[in-house]
Amino acid sequence: MTNRFGVERELDDLPDHALLGIIKIPEPVRKGPWRLIIRRLSYALVLLLTASLVVYTDRDAYTEPLTFLDSLYYSAVSLSTTGYGDITPVTDHARLLNILVITPLRVVFLALLVGTTLSVLTEESRRTLQIQRWRRTVRNHTVVIGYGTKGRSAVAAMLGDGVDPGQIVVVDTDKGVLDQAGNRGLVTVHGSATKSDVLKLAGIQRARSVVVAPNKDDTAVLVTLSVRELAPGATIVASVRESENRHLLEQSGADQVVISSETAGRMLGLATVTPTVVEMMEDLLSPTEGFSVAERIITEEEVGANPRHLADIVLGVVRSGELYRIDSPECESVEPGDSLLYVRRVLADELDPDDDR
Q1: Are strands 339-345 and 23-24 parallel, antiparallel or unpaired?
Q2: Residues 6 or more apart from 252 whose CB is under 8 A from it?
Q3: How many C-beta atoms surround the C-beta of residue 62 within 10 A?
Q4: What phi, psi does 3 have (nearest 5°)?
Q5: Would you kindly state one Gene Ontology biological process term found in this protein's UniProt entry (predicted)?
Q6: What is the set of domains in the chain, with CATH numbers?
Q7: 7 vs 159 pLDDT, higher one
Q8: Contact between 134 and 206 (Cβ < 8 Å)
Q9: pLDDT tens-place string over residues 298-331
Protein backbone atom coordinates (compact mmCIF):
# COMPACT_ATOMS: atom_id res chain seq x y z
CA MET A 1 0.00 0.00 0.00
CA THR A 2 1.37 3.43 -0.97
CA ASN A 3 0.74 6.76 0.70
CA ARG A 4 0.15 10.09 -1.05
CA PHE A 5 3.89 10.64 -1.46
CA GLY A 6 4.27 7.41 -3.42
CA VAL A 7 6.17 5.66 -0.62
CA GLU A 8 5.06 2.07 -0.02
CA ARG A 9 4.01 1.35 3.55
CA GLU A 10 4.55 -1.99 5.24
CA LEU A 11 1.27 -3.80 5.86
CA ASP A 12 2.24 -4.63 9.43
CA ASP A 13 2.68 -0.90 10.10
CA LEU A 14 -0.92 -0.13 9.15
CA PRO A 15 -3.52 0.43 11.90
CA ASP A 16 -5.64 -2.59 12.71
CA HIS A 17 -8.80 -1.18 11.13
CA ALA A 18 -6.99 -1.02 7.77
CA LEU A 19 -6.44 -4.80 7.88
CA LEU A 20 -10.13 -5.80 7.81
CA GLY A 21 -9.87 -6.94 4.18
CA ILE A 22 -6.56 -8.72 4.73
CA ILE A 23 -6.84 -10.67 7.98
CA LYS A 24 -9.97 -12.71 8.71
CA ILE A 25 -10.55 -14.39 12.06
CA PRO A 26 -12.99 -17.33 12.03
CA GLU A 27 -16.23 -16.78 13.91
CA PRO A 28 -19.08 -19.00 15.05
CA VAL A 29 -21.97 -19.43 12.64
CA ARG A 30 -24.17 -16.37 12.78
CA LYS A 31 -27.79 -16.62 13.79
CA GLY A 32 -30.58 -15.94 11.29
CA PRO A 33 -31.79 -12.37 10.76
CA TRP A 34 -35.13 -12.95 12.49
CA ARG A 35 -33.43 -14.29 15.60
CA LEU A 36 -31.17 -11.22 15.64
CA ILE A 37 -34.17 -8.92 15.29
CA ILE A 38 -36.05 -10.71 18.08
CA ARG A 39 -32.97 -10.52 20.30
CA ARG A 40 -32.61 -6.79 19.63
CA LEU A 41 -36.26 -6.17 20.39
CA SER A 42 -35.87 -8.18 23.58
CA TYR A 43 -33.03 -5.92 24.67
CA ALA A 44 -35.21 -2.87 23.95
CA LEU A 45 -38.06 -4.36 26.00
CA VAL A 46 -35.70 -4.97 28.93
CA LEU A 47 -34.57 -1.33 28.76
CA LEU A 48 -38.19 -0.16 28.66
CA LEU A 49 -39.13 -2.24 31.70
CA THR A 50 -36.02 -1.06 33.55
CA ALA A 51 -36.91 2.57 32.92
CA SER A 52 -40.51 1.92 33.99
CA LEU A 53 -39.40 0.41 37.28
CA VAL A 54 -37.06 3.34 37.93
CA VAL A 55 -39.86 5.83 37.28
CA TYR A 56 -42.39 3.85 39.33
CA THR A 57 -40.12 3.80 42.39
CA ASP A 58 -40.25 7.63 42.32
CA ARG A 59 -43.91 7.86 41.17
CA ASP A 60 -44.88 10.72 43.52
CA ALA A 61 -42.30 13.10 42.01
CA TYR A 62 -44.25 13.82 38.81
CA THR A 63 -47.14 16.09 37.86
CA GLU A 64 -49.51 13.41 39.12
CA PRO A 65 -49.12 10.17 41.09
CA LEU A 66 -48.25 7.42 38.63
CA THR A 67 -49.52 3.88 38.33
CA PHE A 68 -47.20 1.28 36.84
CA LEU A 69 -49.08 1.67 33.52
CA ASP A 70 -48.43 5.43 33.70
CA SER A 71 -44.75 4.69 34.34
CA LEU A 72 -44.64 2.34 31.36
CA TYR A 73 -46.34 4.96 29.19
CA TYR A 74 -43.97 7.72 30.34
CA SER A 75 -40.92 5.51 29.75
CA ALA A 76 -42.11 4.58 26.26
CA VAL A 77 -42.67 8.16 25.10
CA SER A 78 -39.44 9.30 26.77
CA LEU A 79 -37.17 6.57 25.36
CA SER A 80 -38.64 7.02 21.89
CA THR A 81 -38.08 10.83 22.22
CA THR A 82 -41.81 11.43 21.47
CA GLY A 83 -42.29 13.44 24.67
CA TYR A 84 -45.98 14.48 24.76
CA GLY A 85 -45.44 16.50 27.92
CA ASP A 86 -48.54 15.29 29.73
CA ILE A 87 -46.36 13.67 32.42
CA THR A 88 -43.23 15.48 33.56
CA PRO A 89 -40.90 15.28 36.55
CA VAL A 90 -41.42 18.18 38.94
CA THR A 91 -38.97 17.48 41.80
CA ASP A 92 -35.22 17.90 41.62
CA HIS A 93 -34.75 14.26 42.56
CA ALA A 94 -36.91 13.06 39.65
CA ARG A 95 -35.18 15.38 37.19
CA LEU A 96 -31.76 14.16 38.30
CA LEU A 97 -32.99 10.59 37.92
CA ASN A 98 -34.08 11.38 34.36
CA ILE A 99 -30.68 12.86 33.53
CA LEU A 100 -28.66 10.01 35.01
CA VAL A 101 -30.85 7.03 34.08
CA ILE A 102 -33.57 7.78 31.54
CA THR A 103 -31.38 9.78 29.14
CA PRO A 104 -28.63 7.10 28.86
CA LEU A 105 -31.31 4.44 28.43
CA ARG A 106 -32.86 6.56 25.67
CA VAL A 107 -29.57 6.60 23.76
CA VAL A 108 -29.16 2.82 24.06
CA PHE A 109 -32.81 2.28 23.17
CA LEU A 110 -32.52 4.28 19.94
CA ALA A 111 -29.24 2.58 19.04
CA LEU A 112 -30.93 -0.81 19.35
CA LEU A 113 -33.98 0.03 17.26
CA VAL A 114 -32.79 2.42 14.54
CA GLY A 115 -29.02 2.09 14.62
CA THR A 116 -28.47 0.45 11.21
CA THR A 117 -25.48 2.60 10.38
CA LEU A 118 -24.27 2.32 13.94
CA SER A 119 -24.49 -1.47 13.68
CA VAL A 120 -22.15 -1.43 10.68
CA LEU A 121 -19.67 0.75 12.52
CA THR A 122 -19.96 -1.44 15.59
CA GLU A 123 -19.30 -4.55 13.50
CA GLU A 124 -16.15 -3.03 12.01
CA SER A 125 -14.98 -1.92 15.44
CA ARG A 126 -15.58 -5.39 16.82
CA ARG A 127 -13.61 -7.00 14.00
CA THR A 128 -10.83 -4.45 14.44
CA LEU A 129 -10.58 -5.27 18.14
CA GLN A 130 -10.64 -8.97 17.27
CA ILE A 131 -7.71 -8.57 14.87
CA GLN A 132 -5.85 -6.44 17.39
CA ARG A 133 -6.31 -9.05 20.12
CA TRP A 134 -5.31 -11.91 17.79
CA ARG A 135 -2.12 -10.18 16.64
CA ARG A 136 -1.18 -9.53 20.24
CA THR A 137 -1.80 -13.05 21.55
CA VAL A 138 -1.04 -15.46 18.69
CA ARG A 139 1.81 -17.83 19.64
CA ASN A 140 3.19 -21.25 18.60
CA HIS A 141 0.86 -21.54 15.63
CA THR A 142 1.37 -23.05 12.19
CA VAL A 143 1.47 -20.90 9.07
CA VAL A 144 0.45 -22.61 5.82
CA ILE A 145 1.61 -20.72 2.75
CA GLY A 146 -0.47 -21.68 -0.26
CA TYR A 147 -3.90 -23.28 0.04
CA GLY A 148 -3.86 -25.31 -3.15
CA THR A 149 -4.00 -29.11 -3.27
CA LYS A 150 -0.87 -29.54 -1.15
CA GLY A 151 -1.80 -26.86 1.36
CA ARG A 152 -5.33 -28.24 1.82
CA SER A 153 -3.97 -31.74 2.31
CA ALA A 154 -1.48 -30.48 4.90
CA VAL A 155 -4.25 -28.70 6.79
CA ALA A 156 -6.50 -31.79 6.63
CA ALA A 157 -3.70 -33.89 8.13
CA MET A 158 -3.15 -31.40 10.97
CA LEU A 159 -6.85 -31.15 11.74
CA GLY A 160 -7.09 -34.93 11.66
CA ASP A 161 -4.32 -35.10 14.25
CA GLY A 162 -6.27 -32.83 16.58
CA VAL A 163 -4.68 -29.43 15.88
CA ASP A 164 -6.96 -26.54 16.84
CA PRO A 165 -8.14 -24.78 13.63
CA GLY A 166 -7.55 -21.44 15.37
CA GLN A 167 -3.84 -22.31 15.56
CA ILE A 168 -3.51 -22.55 11.76
CA VAL A 169 -2.99 -19.44 9.64
CA VAL A 170 -3.34 -19.68 5.85
CA VAL A 171 -1.62 -17.18 3.54
CA ASP A 172 -2.70 -17.00 -0.10
CA THR A 173 -3.40 -14.49 -2.85
CA ASP A 174 -6.68 -16.12 -3.91
CA LYS A 175 -9.63 -14.83 -1.89
CA GLY A 176 -11.75 -17.75 -3.07
CA VAL A 177 -9.53 -20.38 -1.47
CA LEU A 178 -9.16 -18.21 1.62
CA ASP A 179 -12.95 -18.27 2.00
CA GLN A 180 -12.77 -22.06 1.90
CA ALA A 181 -10.08 -22.00 4.59
CA GLY A 182 -12.16 -19.62 6.69
CA ASN A 183 -15.14 -21.99 6.48
CA ARG A 184 -12.96 -24.62 8.16
CA GLY A 185 -12.26 -22.28 11.08
CA LEU A 186 -8.78 -21.19 9.95
CA VAL A 187 -7.34 -17.70 10.29
CA THR A 188 -6.54 -16.29 6.83
CA VAL A 189 -4.23 -13.57 5.53
CA HIS A 190 -4.68 -12.27 2.00
CA GLY A 191 -1.44 -11.38 0.24
CA SER A 192 1.74 -12.71 -1.31
CA ALA A 193 3.99 -14.63 1.09
CA THR A 194 7.03 -13.43 -0.86
CA LYS A 195 6.56 -10.10 0.96
CA SER A 196 7.89 -9.90 4.48
CA ASP A 197 5.11 -7.59 5.68
CA VAL A 198 2.49 -10.18 4.73
CA LEU A 199 4.42 -12.85 6.62
CA LYS A 200 4.60 -10.57 9.65
CA LEU A 201 0.82 -10.15 9.56
CA ALA A 202 0.58 -13.93 9.84
CA GLY A 203 2.69 -13.76 13.02
CA ILE A 204 5.58 -15.59 11.39
CA GLN A 205 8.07 -14.41 14.03
CA ARG A 206 6.17 -16.32 16.74
CA ALA A 207 5.13 -19.34 14.67
CA ARG A 208 6.09 -22.83 15.77
CA SER A 209 6.08 -24.29 12.25
CA VAL A 210 5.62 -23.16 8.67
CA VAL A 211 4.33 -25.20 5.72
CA VAL A 212 5.56 -23.82 2.38
CA ALA A 213 3.31 -25.18 -0.37
CA PRO A 214 3.05 -22.74 -3.30
CA ASN A 215 2.48 -23.89 -6.89
CA LYS A 216 5.96 -22.96 -8.17
CA ASP A 217 9.37 -24.11 -6.97
CA ASP A 218 11.02 -20.70 -7.39
CA THR A 219 8.29 -19.18 -5.22
CA ALA A 220 8.90 -21.88 -2.60
CA VAL A 221 12.61 -21.00 -2.49
CA LEU A 222 11.96 -17.27 -2.14
CA VAL A 223 9.31 -17.78 0.55
CA THR A 224 11.56 -20.17 2.50
CA LEU A 225 14.39 -17.62 2.48
CA SER A 226 12.05 -14.93 3.80
CA VAL A 227 10.55 -17.19 6.45
CA ARG A 228 13.94 -18.36 7.72
CA GLU A 229 15.13 -14.76 8.01
CA LEU A 230 12.05 -13.68 9.97
CA ALA A 231 11.62 -16.87 12.04
CA PRO A 232 15.00 -18.49 12.66
CA GLY A 233 13.56 -20.84 15.28
CA ALA A 234 10.53 -22.11 13.35
CA THR A 235 10.35 -25.55 11.77
CA ILE A 236 9.97 -25.13 8.00
CA VAL A 237 8.48 -27.93 5.90
CA ALA A 238 8.52 -27.14 2.18
CA SER A 239 7.23 -28.85 -0.93
CA VAL A 240 8.81 -28.80 -4.39
CA ARG A 241 7.72 -30.37 -7.65
CA GLU A 242 11.14 -31.37 -8.97
CA SER A 243 13.90 -33.19 -7.07
CA GLU A 244 16.70 -31.04 -8.55
CA ASN A 245 15.33 -28.09 -6.58
CA ARG A 246 15.50 -29.86 -3.25
CA HIS A 247 18.99 -28.60 -2.39
CA LEU A 248 17.89 -25.02 -3.06
CA LEU A 249 15.17 -25.29 -0.43
CA GLU A 250 17.53 -26.95 2.03
CA GLN A 251 20.08 -24.17 1.49
CA SER A 252 17.29 -21.63 1.94
CA GLY A 253 16.59 -22.99 5.42
CA ALA A 254 13.94 -25.70 5.05
CA ASP A 255 14.12 -28.38 7.73
CA GLN A 256 12.15 -30.91 5.70
CA VAL A 257 11.58 -31.02 1.93
CA VAL A 258 8.85 -33.09 0.31
CA ILE A 259 9.18 -33.79 -3.41
CA SER A 260 5.63 -33.94 -4.67
CA SER A 261 6.34 -35.27 -8.18
CA GLU A 262 8.56 -38.14 -7.00
CA THR A 263 6.17 -39.08 -4.20
CA ALA A 264 3.22 -39.16 -6.58
CA GLY A 265 5.33 -41.06 -9.14
CA ARG A 266 6.27 -43.75 -6.64
CA MET A 267 2.65 -44.16 -5.62
CA LEU A 268 1.62 -44.51 -9.26
CA GLY A 269 4.33 -47.09 -9.87
CA LEU A 270 3.37 -49.11 -6.82
CA ALA A 271 -0.28 -48.98 -7.84
CA THR A 272 0.49 -50.82 -11.07
CA VAL A 273 2.30 -53.65 -9.25
CA THR A 274 0.92 -53.82 -5.70
CA PRO A 275 -2.23 -51.69 -5.48
CA THR A 276 -3.00 -52.96 -1.97
CA VAL A 277 0.28 -51.43 -0.73
CA VAL A 278 -0.80 -48.06 -2.11
CA GLU A 279 -4.18 -48.46 -0.44
CA MET A 280 -2.54 -49.13 2.91
CA MET A 281 -0.13 -46.19 2.51
CA GLU A 282 -3.02 -43.87 1.75
CA ASP A 283 -4.78 -45.21 4.83
CA LEU A 284 -1.72 -44.47 6.99
CA LEU A 285 -1.50 -40.95 5.56
CA SER A 286 -5.20 -40.25 6.25
CA PRO A 287 -5.45 -39.38 9.95
CA THR A 288 -9.25 -39.36 9.99
CA GLU A 289 -9.92 -42.95 8.96
CA GLY A 290 -8.56 -46.45 9.52
CA PHE A 291 -4.92 -46.37 10.61
CA SER A 292 -2.56 -43.41 10.89
CA VAL A 293 1.08 -42.78 11.78
CA ALA A 294 1.31 -40.88 15.06
CA GLU A 295 3.92 -39.87 17.63
CA ARG A 296 3.73 -40.11 21.39
CA ILE A 297 5.99 -39.78 24.43
CA ILE A 298 6.91 -43.08 26.10
CA THR A 299 5.48 -43.84 29.52
CA GLU A 300 7.51 -44.51 32.65
CA GLU A 301 6.64 -48.22 32.45
CA GLU A 302 8.11 -48.43 28.93
CA VAL A 303 11.57 -47.05 29.83
CA GLY A 304 14.21 -49.69 29.07
CA ALA A 305 11.84 -51.87 27.06
CA ASN A 306 12.44 -53.04 23.52
CA PRO A 307 10.05 -51.04 21.29
CA ARG A 308 9.50 -54.15 19.14
CA HIS A 309 7.80 -55.80 22.11
CA LEU A 310 5.41 -53.00 22.99
CA ALA A 311 1.68 -53.25 22.42
CA ASP A 312 1.80 -50.62 19.67
CA ILE A 313 3.24 -51.27 16.21
CA VAL A 314 6.34 -49.08 16.51
CA LEU A 315 8.02 -47.77 13.34
CA GLY A 316 10.83 -45.75 14.91
CA VAL A 317 12.16 -43.92 17.95
CA VAL A 318 12.75 -40.16 18.11
CA ARG A 319 15.63 -39.34 20.45
CA SER A 320 16.97 -35.81 20.89
CA GLY A 321 15.28 -34.79 17.66
CA GLU A 322 16.85 -37.65 15.68
CA LEU A 323 14.72 -40.42 14.11
CA TYR A 324 15.96 -43.99 14.46
CA ARG A 325 14.12 -46.68 12.51
CA ILE A 326 12.97 -49.75 14.35
CA ASP A 327 15.74 -51.93 12.86
CA SER A 328 18.60 -49.64 14.01
CA PRO A 329 20.82 -50.52 17.01
CA GLU A 330 19.63 -47.42 18.86
CA CYS A 331 16.15 -48.97 19.02
CA GLU A 332 17.14 -51.90 21.20
CA SER A 333 15.63 -50.09 24.18
CA VAL A 334 13.84 -46.82 24.80
CA GLU A 335 15.21 -44.12 27.07
CA PRO A 336 13.53 -41.40 29.17
CA GLY A 337 12.38 -38.55 26.93
CA ASP A 338 12.10 -40.69 23.79
CA SER A 339 9.10 -40.51 21.49
CA LEU A 340 7.64 -43.38 19.50
CA LEU A 341 6.42 -43.29 15.92
CA TYR A 342 3.69 -45.90 15.82
CA VAL A 343 0.63 -47.02 13.90
CA ARG A 344 -2.49 -45.70 15.61
CA ARG A 345 -5.94 -47.10 15.08
CA VAL A 346 -8.52 -44.34 14.55
CA LEU A 347 -11.68 -45.33 16.40
CA ALA A 348 -15.11 -44.60 14.96
CA ASP A 349 -16.00 -42.16 17.75
CA GLU A 350 -12.88 -40.11 16.95
CA LEU A 351 -14.06 -39.39 13.43
CA ASP A 352 -15.48 -35.95 12.76
CA PRO A 353 -18.90 -36.32 11.11
CA ASP A 354 -18.45 -32.89 9.50
CA ASP A 355 -15.08 -33.74 8.01
CA ASP A 356 -15.17 -33.27 4.23
CA ARG A 357 -13.18 -36.27 3.01
Answers
A1: unpaired
A2: 221, 224, 225, 228
A3: 18
A4: -90, -175
A5: potassium ion transport
A6: 15-137 (1.10.287.70), 139-264 (3.40.50.720), 290-350 (3.30.70.1450)
A7: 159
A8: no
A9: 888 888 899 888 888 898 999 988 888 988 888 8
